[in-house]
Structure formats: C-alpha cells, structure tokens
Amino acid sequence: MADTRTFLITGASSGIGAQFARAYAQRGYNLILVARRLNRLQDLAAELTAKHGIAVTCLDADLSDRAQVKALVARIREMNLSPDGLINNAGYSLAHTFASTTTQQQMDFVEVCVMTPTYLAREFLDPMLARGFGRIINVSSMVAFSPGAAGHTLYPAAKAYMLKFSRSLAAEVAYKGVNVTALCPGSTESEFQTANGMAAAVGTSPSRFVQSAEAVVEAAIRANEAGREVIVTGLINKLAVFLMTYLPDGLVTPLIRWGAKKYQL
Ligand SMILES: NC(=O)c1ccc[n+]([C@@H]2O[C@H](COP(=O)([O-])OP(=O)(O)OC[C@H]3O[C@@H](n4cnc5c(N)ncnc54)[C@H](OP(=O)(O)O)[C@@H]3O)[C@@H](O)[C@H]2O)c1
Predict the structure, then answer these.
(1) Is the CB of 36 under 6 A from ligand 1?
(2) Which of 58, 147, 160, 197 is 20 to 30 Å from the Cα of 83, by its Cα?
(3) What is the DSSP letter of 111?
(4) What kind of fold does domain 6-263 have according to CATH?
(5) Secondary structure class of 46 (helix, strand, coil)
(6) What's 178's DSSP letter?
(7) For ligand 1, is residue 238 a contact (CB within 6 Å)?
(8) Closest ligand 1 atom to Cα of 92
(9) Ligand 1 pocket member 89 (CB < 6 A)
C-alpha cells in the first residue's frame, strides 16, 4: 500500500475497463477513471475506495469529441495528477456495414478507438519518461490478426493500429522504464455485445469461447509488468491467431468471412 502510483483507465464504466480498475485498486494504486457514464464510475469509485483505501478521481468525457479529450487532459493537469499508467481501453464496434452507417458514426469510431488513445499516450508519455517509470496498455483485439469481413468494417483496422502502435512505441521506450503492451483478447464477458446490438440480434457466444474480464485483465497486467509487447489471452484465441497468421490467406479469408456472417447487422 506504500505505492502511490496513479493509473488512468478509459472506458472504466463497464467490462474490461472496470476490471482493470478493480485489479489496480487491489494493487493499491490510485485511479483516474474516465467514461461518459459518470454515475457508473462514481459507484465503482465508492466500492474501491471503501475496499482498498485508494484515491479515485472520476471524470466524464465523450472520447469521440477531441475538444472533450483536450479538456480532460487539462482537468487532470489542473488537479496536479500525472498518470504513471495509462490503460487505453474505451472502445466499441459498429456491427453494420460501412455503407449502412453515417460518416459521423465512422469518424466517431476512429476518434474513440484510434485518435484518442494516440492523443492520451502522447500527452502523458513525457512525464513517464522523465520519471523512468510508465505503464501503457492499449486494448487491441485478436481481430487485429484477421483479414476482415463484412460488418464491423473499421474494427480490425483500428485494432491492428493499436497493435502496431504499441509495438513501435515499445521499441522506443522499453529501455526507459516504460512498458507498452497491446492487449489482444477474444470474446470477453462485458457489455460489448449489448452496446453494438449483437446480443439482441444473435445472443451471446457459447461460454467456452468467452473469457472472464478478470482472466483477460490479469493476463494483461502480468504481460505488461514483464515488458511483453503483445498478449493474446486464452488458449483458443492463441490458437486462432496462430492459424490466422500461418495458414494460407486463400483458406483463412473465406473461413473468417463465413464465420463472421452472423455477427453483421
Ligand atoms: N468484449 C470483447 O469481446 C472484446 C474483445 C476484444 C477487445 N475488446 C475491447 O475491449 C475494450 C473494452 O470493451 P468491453 O468489452 O469492456 O466493452 P464494454 O463493456 O461495452 O465497455 C466499453 C467501455 O468503453 C466506454 N466508451 C465507449 N464509447 C465511449 C466514448 N465515446 N467516450 C468514452 N467512453 C466510451 C464505455 O463507457 P461509457 O459508455 O460509459 O462512455 C465503456 O466503459 C474495447 O476497446 C473493445 O474493443 C473487447
């Protein structure tokens, strides 16, 4: 409990982000929690403060809005907070095809899943380098390794960006005490499928393919602490990534497109 590190977690109001908050709180770290649903963050903060005696700051921001992202960084600095750890977790997917969504929906998606994580990493990296300590986890997905399919059009691209961005940044800062990891989970218990409408449309995946948020987060933190650049969580997901990487594209692409058909709205 002597450790007074502060970790910023985006998308901490549910799912994987809320679990990151629980996991770092358990380690005695102070937290800055960010999402749009402030009441959810405040409930979680009350629970974690009571249980672990840590300081939790809750900040609401719509991360698709650059002005709000800039204001968020300014608010954090005004409070004299400087994150030692940044968990770029907030994200979602648009289950429809590109043509059946609006330009604004797609641009908002890119802001939340690509631009904002990049912005926050750049804004908070310098103090981490100056301290010689930093932890960055960028939440990607195993679909970063997939050839892409109809529906969720930009999702594999955004997650591939998070994967490649993490690897390059890790190459630059790994020896300066800043560990950068791309977290690549497969299907994970959260509100993800409810938020994108898939749960209502096709139900949830068979449970043997779904990991708990706790298992995903513990694997991520272990990998990040060990300085690993990429973590694919779960044996089935590791096998799937291996097959997507090493089987011929002519076999993988039709298989993925066939399998993904039912996940398109
Ligand atoms: N669950 C899976 O199967 C799975 C698999 C691979 C990767 N992932 C990735 O894991 C990450 C977390 O997702 P999850 O599964 O935990 O889903 P989730 O339960 O739906 O959580 C998504 C989080 O992102 C936040 N968020 C979404 N849009 C936002 C916006 N415009 N501004 C601020 N916050 C926003 C939500 O908060 P508010 O709504 O309160 O703003 C929520 O806290 C995502 O990056 C996702 O792509 C998930």
Answers:
(1) yes
(2) 160
(3) I
(4) Rossmann fold (3.40.50)
(5) helix
(6) E
(7) no
(8) 47
(9) yes
Q: Do residues 161 and 114 make contact, with C-beta atoms less than 8 angstroms apart?
A: yes
Residue 9 phi/psi, 5° resolution? -125, 120
Is 155 tagged catalytic? yes
- DSSP assignment of 116-157 equals HHHHHHHHHHHHHHHHT-EEEEEE--GGGGS---SSSTTHHH
Side by side, the strands of the sheet bearing 30-35 are 56-60, 30-35, 6-10, 85-88, 134-139, 178-184, 230-232
Q: Domain ranges in the chain?
A: 6-263
Tell whether ligand 1 has an atom less than 6 A from the beta carbon of residue 13: yes
From the list 134, 152, 159, 138, the residue with the least C-alpha distance to 17 is: 138
pLDDT digit string, tens, across residues 58-100: 999 999 999 999 999 999 999 999 999 999 999 999 999 999 9
Ligand 1 atom having least distance to the Cα of 195:
20
Residue with tokens 């679990």: 19
Nearest partner of 174 among 141, 125, 220, 221, judged by Cα: 125
Determine the distance separating the centroid of ligand 1 and the alpha carbon of 35, expressed in angstroms: 9
Global pTM reads 0.96
